[in-house]
Amino acid sequence: MKILITGTAGFIGYHLAERLISDGYDVVGLDSINDYYDIRVKFGRLERSGISQSSLEYNKLYQSDKYKNYKFIKLNLEDKENLSDLFKKEKFDAVCNLAAQAGVRYSLTNPDVYIKSNISGFMNILEDCRHNDVKNLVYASSSSVYGMNEEYPFSIHHNVDHPVSLYAASKKSNELMAHCYSHLYGICTTGLRFFTVYGPWGRPDMALFLFTKAIIEGRPIDVFNNGQMRRDFTYIDDIVEGIVRVIKKPAKPNPEWTGKDPDPGTSVAPYRIYNIGSNKPVLLMDFIQTIENCLGVEAKKNMLPLQPGDVPASHADVTDLMNDMGYKPETTVKEGIKKFLEWYIDFYNIKIKLREI
Asked: How far apart are CA 268 and CA 166, in angstroms?
């Protein structure tokens, strides 16, 4: 099977590519390598996968120096013509779309880029799947789509029509667009709502990365909602395992679905939605304390109100993932944070000894 993974210079995409490569799949990775966050981390991920060129030409397919079954191309999803040429040339059996403009807060100040990448770019993916007979599309949605929903845990069967950020709205749009293509063209589409992913090679704009950097440098950390937020932190390896299982099991129609009582998470079309989360929300202050305990340093804290676009809590109901895929994330926050910190001090060559917790 040949699989296109978009976003392979990104956090989840890098880890998924490594897993599928090791499993023996032929993988083509794609990424625009934008400067939304420190590109040293992005190039570091690529180098780990054998894409070692320091200056990658646009729209050129590179063979990995490390893996015979991995190629990489620097390309924007919005580049309709070149993306279409890639699909025609490579003839993919499946696509996993993880490329997107990330970040809730960034969408408040730079909304245009979310429309271009997350909606127009995703439209191009759908069209290329349609015209190149790709029958299995897995794509990243987000727990952000639950928006103003206050019924916990968040279920794929809940209504999600009240997002509180443009980022969330763009991800909800992806789900709606995917359903159209499942209904009209029989493409099996599966949307995955990820819950606060963390781990080695993580994103520098995420809380764990920001907290760790500030604490080590002796700077105060910003603690929003006065630390009373709860997040369903999910370790990267658990996310990847969920994605791999979904890729191997394309979406099928739900024969019990009815338009008189429509289920948002399934359809009469080959369309599915799954949550991938730990199902164990953690209080933000406890999360911070685990970092402090590992580093042996108490953080200086700026206690702040909830930010616009944020939600006070997230909690994944993973019943459908368990029933359909036989899987549930199990990595504890203590295990995951320690593994991240081990990577962080190695990557940035920091002379510090972690404490056992």
From this structure: 29
The residue written with tokens 């979406």 in the block is: 251
d(CA 354, CA 219): 19
| DSSP element (H, E) containing 138 | strand 136-140
DSSP one-letter code for 28: E
> Three-state DSSP class for 96?
strand
Q: What is the CA radius of gyration of the chain?
A: 20
Taking alpha carbons only, the member of 201, 195, 197 closest to residue 341 is 201
Whole-angstrom Cα distance, residue 8 to residue 30?
Answer: 6
φ, ψ of residue 45 to 5 degrees: the values are -65, -45
Whether the full predicted model's pTM is greater than 0.90, yes or no, is: yes
Nearest to 308 by CA among 170, 163, 202, 194: 163
- Determine the residue type at 59: N
Give catalytic residues, as residue numbers.
167
CA-to-CA separations, 84 to 30, 47, 96, 150, 269, in angstroms, rounded: 13, 26, 16, 41, 25
Mean pLDDT, contiguous 10-residue spans, the chain (357 residues): 97 98 98 91 96 88 97 97 98 97 84 94 98 98 94 96 94 98 98 97 94 96 91 97 98 97 97 97 96 95 88 93 97 97 95 88
User: 321 phi and psi, to 5 degrees?
Assistant: -60, -40
φ, ψ at 179 (rounded to 5°): -60, -40
Residue 295 near residue 215 (C-beta atoms within 8 A): yes
Classify 209 as helix, strand or coil: helix
